[in-house]
Structures are given as C-alpha cells and as structure tokens.
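hiii so um. not sure if this is the right channel but i have a protein structure encoded as tokens and i wanna go backwards to a sequence. like what aa goes where. can anyone help
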C-alpha cells in the first residue's frame, strides 16, 4: 500500500466515525422513555399494505432524476453537450458519490468527463456549483413550508429558517438578475485579502456568476423551476413509499423528511451520507406522529432504495459506456489521477 493510499484511508476515518455516531444515535440510543430507535417488531411487521403505490415510487424516482439530468443538460447547452452524455455523466457521478469518499463523483464530473461533454473543467465546475446552490435553496424552502405543520420545531428555529430562506431568495435573485454587473464588485471586494481559502471562494463565486451570465435570466429562472420540480418528485417518492408500507402519521411528514434528510448530506460523513440521513428522516417523521422505531426504519428503507437505485443505474450506464468505447483503464487508476479536491 502506497503512502497516498494510506493518507486516503486516514481521510475516510473521520467520516466513518461521524456515520457510526449518527447510526448509534438513530437506532441504539435510548430516549426519555427507555425505548431505542430500532424495534425488531417493526422490522418483522414490515410489508406492502397498498401495493399500488409501487407505481408511484417508480414513477417519482424515474421522473425526478430525469428532471435532474435535463436541468444539467440545460446548463451545458452553450457548449452543445448531448443529453445522453449529460445523463450518463450525472448518474455516474451520483453513483460514485454513493460508494467513494470525499465526493469523488463530483471531482470526476469536473475532470474526467469534461471532454465527453465538449466542455472545460471550469465550465463543468461552474454548473456543479450552481446545481448545489439550486438544490440547497429548494430544500430550505421545502423545510420552511413543512415545519409549520406538526410539532417540535421551536419558534426561534422557525424564524432562523425563514430568515435563511429570505436571504437566499434575495441572493439568488441578485445572482439571476445582476450576474453581468456583479463580477467587478466581487473582484474588488475579495482583492482586499490574500487568504487562500477566501481566494478559492472568490473563484467559485465568479464561476457561478459566469455560468448564470451564459445561461441568461430566463434560462436561470427555468433552472429554479426544474429544481423545484425535481424535489417535488422526491417528495412524491417519499409519500408513495410511506403509503406503500402503511407508515402512520400525516401526509406532511414525508415531505419534511425529504428536506431534512437531503440537507443532512451537508454534514461530512461516510460515502452516501450513511447515518445523518437516517437520523434526519427519523427526526422529521417523529414531528408528525410517526413512532421513533418506524421513522428510523423508514429512513433506512428510503436510503437503501436510493442507494441501490442510483448506484445501479449510474453504475450500469458507466459500464455500458466503457464496454461501448472498449476502455480498459481500471477505474481506480482513473481516480488516482484526479486532484484531491475541486479547484
């Protein structure tokens, strides 16, 4: 084992420890009533109560990720990327993020597949940054809407979340309508410091502004619509899964679980967000009348479905492409040539 491989393994250790902590907190920590999050009875009693909702699970999954692929293709229209290539690269990167540490899938999207999309790494990086901004905005908006239903959210948390969404809405509006005029003031603002981290933040922000400027106001507004549509499909997926297994609680719980579970991916952990995802699902569902054990089990099932589905589809597209191109270079060799982080 080389020194680089040992360093990579050491970098994984904090994430694995964080995931282990969240899994313990979700399934094995006793609450005030002495109950644990994992109940064997809830697991043994699991079955399809309304099988017709399988159709909803499949349709919402396919539609949601198709919209994500279309959204990314829309960002890359200026370089005339093919939709099929954008869909393959996006799904491959999501699959890689599920099984590899340090979000290697996003790094591969920027460096390994830029040529496949007729783009430069800087252009791909700008779209990845814009994609993340749109997702966080959509999820924060969904969280603010759903937290007014159910119980357990403190007033100051509601106020903070609403304030955050208001600020992000203003910020996104400024980026959309003022991208062309913001570059000069941004460069002037950041020129006052020589800190490397601040310089990287300036670089990322300028890339996002450049991407928005190229797409245009109407195009960027449509990206917001696509983002909201994609996360609406995700909510329908969770709602269909809840109805499929007869999960107790109201109809709002699955929607809040979407917001909390996906925002939990911002917490560093092992590949696939194992641990924080399950705890976030459980926490959201408890607020809407779902028993703790059932909420934890639902989070585990949803994570398994998304993990297997995304990894299977993305991995399958990756293997088919390699077979078609007769590529023989091992994936691990490709990963070894990637930078340690995004530029």
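sure thing!! here u go:
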């Amino acid at each position: 084992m080389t020194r680089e491989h040992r360093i990579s393994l050491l970098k994984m250790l904090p994430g694995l420890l964080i995931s282990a902590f969240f899994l313990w907190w979700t399934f094995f920590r006793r609450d005030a009533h002495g109950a644990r999050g994992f109940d064997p009875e809830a697991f043994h009693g699991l079955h399809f109560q309304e099988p017709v909702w399988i159709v909803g699970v499949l349709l919402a999954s396919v539609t949601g990720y198709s919209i994500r692929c279309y959204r990314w293709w829309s960002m890359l229209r200026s370089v005339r990327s093919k939709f099929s290539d954008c869909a393959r690269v996006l799904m491959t990167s999501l699959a890689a993020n599920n099984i590899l540490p340090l979000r290697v899938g996003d790094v591969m999207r920027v460096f390994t597949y830029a040529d496949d999309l007729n783009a430069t790494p800087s252009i791909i990086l700008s779209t990845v940054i814009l994609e993340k901004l749109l997702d966080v905005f959509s999820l924060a908006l969904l969280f603010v809407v759903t937290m007014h239903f159910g119980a357990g959210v403190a007033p100051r948390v509601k106020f903070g979340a609403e304030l955050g969404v208001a600020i992000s809405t203003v910020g996104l509006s400024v980026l959309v309508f003022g991208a062309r005029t913001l570059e000069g003031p941004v460069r002037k603002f950041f020129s006052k410091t020589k800190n490397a981290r601040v310089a990287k933040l300036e670089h990322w922000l300028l890339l996002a502004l450049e991407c928005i400027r190229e797409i245009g106001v109407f195009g960027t507004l449509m990206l917001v619509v696509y983002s909201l549509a994609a996360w609406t499909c995700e909510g329908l997926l969770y709602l269909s899964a809840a109805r499929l297994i007869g999960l107790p609680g109201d109809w709002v719980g699955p929607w809040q679980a979407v917001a909390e579970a996906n925002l939990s991916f911002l917490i560093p952990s092992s590949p696939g967000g194992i641990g924080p995802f399950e705890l976030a699902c459980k926490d959201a569902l408890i607020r809407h009348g779902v028993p703790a054990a059932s909420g934890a089990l639902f989070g585990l099932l949803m994570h398994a479905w998304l993990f297997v589905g995304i990894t299977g589809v993305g991995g399958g597209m990756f293997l088919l492409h390699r077979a078609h191109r007769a590529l023989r270079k091992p994936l691990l060799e490709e990963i070894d040539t990637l930078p340690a982080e995004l530029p």
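oh and The radius of gyration is 21 Å.
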